[in-house]
Amino acid sequence: MPSTSQRALTWFGVDDEWERPRPRLGRQDVVLAASVEAVSLLALELVRSAGGLDHTDVPVWTQWLAVSTGAALLLGRRRWPLVVASLAALHMFVAGVTMPQVMGQVSLQIVYFVALLSGVAYARDRRAMVVVIGTIVLFMFAWITWQFAVGSAAQDMIDDMDRADRVGFFPPIPSAVAMTLLVNVIYFGGAIVGGGVSWRAARQRMRLQEQAATIAAQAGRLREQAVLDERLRIARELHDVVAHGVSAMGIQAGAARRVLDRDPDAARTALAHVEDASRDALAQMRRLLGTLREGPVDGGGDGTGPAGGTRTPEAGVGDLPELVAQASQEGLAVHLDVVEDPTCAATRLPRGIGLAIYRTVQEALTNVRRHSTADTVSVVVRVDESSSYAEVEVVDNGRPRHGTSGSGLGQLGIRERAATHDGQVDIGPRVTGGYRVRVRYPLRAS
């Protein structure tokens, strides 16, 4: 079982390979140091005005310099944490020996606390941190012990108690010594523990970010691999279709050539087979190319699309009413609005953009039916020739249906299709509820 010291070293990350990033001096460091200096100087003058520095003999400018240099240490607390912590300890000792009333100001005590905390929180070399911070703490408690043992601290307490009534359960001198030690234990212990907590929290945040990046990269690779596998499968099937169709047509055409003169009926039959084979091969090629272009969708081998529409390469904005009507028959209340400026602008859209708008609506309606609890969908197509853009927006009022997460290939197809026409895509949940698919196409670029 590990000892207490081993557990403490592990908690402070002594053997941890992770190093906290070394930030550059930034605006927040300058603002912090300047703000602390301004507040500290103001507090010093308020204390002086109230008579709290009557026993301080050093010049005023020296007091100001002590406060200002203490605040300036905070500039490098994140970039050079151990150096700043060491300088803060030296500053505390020098100021405590020469001007103890100034060193005891709350503003400077906060500076020392933050410097020590930052030394623990931002140190990259954790073993060096343990050595430096441990040395600082031992030195400070040795200084306190020296003040009580051979210094004037005990005599000052005796003088103060001679002028005051003695009350309480404990003897005065031990009580004062115990209170001083308790305050310093809380002070230094709080800074060290707080710095350790800050370092561990930063390490946890970094690990979570790395895990999120790894998961996102893996998801992207899996999605790309799924797309690649699907396209390779379709390519192999397309090769088989073409090879079979061409071979069949070649055989029938050769047979027709041989019997053309002596048996015209057999030649006509062979040529009819060539015609049938070409039509069948062409139909299968169109279906496979459509699948390659659109990704996996609902429907059987008859070529029907996601919302019941036919795979037609000539589909456009004018075919949306039929698509919407078919989707409405499946339980969705779909409202279609076509906003045109000027009138009939939608009919003058380039064929590629019109088909892209049709396929976007088709895929969006399929996703609503598959993966959403929505019962109402709004489809809006905007065509503005004066501003040179065409836009399609599909918005539903539902929430994601549990257990129906898709492959993401449908949305990938929308994005690829939009990228072909330099379109801008906005897909995601809305703050007010529901889901939105919006694609804007520039008409000049088309």
Automatic annotation (TrEMBL):
It comes from the Bacteria. Its EC number is 2.7.13.3. InterPro entries: HATPase_C_sf, HATPase_dom, Sensor_HK_TwoCompSys, Sig_transdc_His_kin_sub3_dim/P. It catalyses: ATP + protein L-histidine = ADP + protein N-phospho-L-histidine. Residues 297-308 have a biased composition (Gly residues). Gene3D superfamilies: 1.20.5.1930, Histidine kinase-like ATPase, C-terminal domain. This is histidine kinase. It comes from Nocardioides pini.
